[in-house]
Amino acid sequence: MKNGDKVLGQTMQAIEEKAVDAEKKVRVGLIGTGWIAEAHVEQYRRFPDVEIVAMADLIPGKAEKFCKTHGVDPASVHFYPDHLSMLQNEQLDAVSICTYNMTHAECAIAALNAGVNVLLEKPFTVTVEEAAEVMRAEKASGNILSIGFQPRMDPNMQQIKKIVESGALGEIYYIQTGGGRRRGIPNSTFIEKKTAGLGALGDIGCYSLDMVLNAIGYPRPLTVTGYTSNFFGTNPLYSRPDQTHSAEENAARFDVDDFAAAFIRLEGGIILDFRISWAMHLDTPGDTVILGKKGALRIPSTECWNGTVGGEMTLYTDVAGLQTETRIPILESKKSLFEMKVRSFLDAVKTGGSAPVPSSQILYNQAIIDGIAKSAAEGREIEIVIPEV
Ligand SMILES: NC(=O)c1ccc[n+]([C@@H]2O[C@H](COP(=O)([O-])OP(=O)(O)OC[C@H]3O[C@@H](n4cnc5c(N)ncnc54)[C@H](O)[C@@H]3O)[C@@H](O)[C@H]2O)c1
Question: Which distant-in-sequence residues (6+ apart) come within 8 Å of 348 by Cβ?
Fold first, then answer.
């Protein structure tokens, strides 16, 4: 049994003892009322078994304005200037944490310690130490913590895992993954370390890592050689103005990565070759490929942060001595990925089920991201140390 499975097992036992009464409405609070909070509220509003009772944001008046523009009656909501005051004053069943990356850990720990179930936006945290600290709070509280990776709900993403699990590829030894944008640097709170902590590596890198690591069962990462750069974000030629900053000001604010690459060794002798980009002089750094001893899978260069694969996948195998290629048709999703992400979390809260995207898996995702950042800073290969939870 892997360490992550053991932790998950203990957490599950505690969760089953704390399931919310299925007849009652789930009392939900929102921490952070920025851009992505809109997608959470849109879903919560659709479900008759949910009451949005509280909202917190550090920016005065922002949550109140958010309510008005997103169809929530402000009279039915209590507003707070931060997560702590909300958690101290409300009896909540669940919170969505929609804050920037640097406050993910403190908000999640406070919510779990207050006995509240947590849907935490991606990336899990900024460092692996923070992720482990959140998991300790999860374990101690017995509450549900699910990390907001909605691409997990996509049937094409799920097909990748099914193909691997079918044995069609045999033993896997090499994976190339990542993706990138030629130009696609976000603005706002994403470009400064003090709020985002990480750039493209954390923002979209976490998705491409999850796509392949989830498919192969999240083996433990062992070592990493990482590289990061920010030649585009810091250059006014390539940065963009926003409502409050000129392009020059945004270039001066920019202190995170806009490109990252890494060579990672995973348990089981698997090599992971990774690259991610918010900006570069190239359309794509290539397809995702999974090489096994019996077959290989090509996943067309994917904007997997948009939730799905970039086109029909191809399975390469030898059949009776003939080299064959099988096209894997694109599967349509009947529901929105965000609906399934929020609903599966609520169902887990109501039934005492398991977290749809468990922290025990995403701990390894975060360890790789953190390892890339640390290795890049030190300019050498480093061992990935997974803290005890
Ligand atoms: N799943 C997805 O598809 C997706 C898409 C975009 C962003 N995200 C993630 O969502 C998070 C938020 O992104 P965003 O674009 O909404 O950012 P944002 O900057 O627009 O909003 C974040 C808000 O959180 C508030 N905040 C920060 N710390 C707080 C605290 N302690 N208490 C209360 N409020 C606090 C800020 O004041 C801000 O209003 C990021 O981690 C990002 O990676 C996920």
Answer: 15, 117, 144, 146, 354, 355, 356
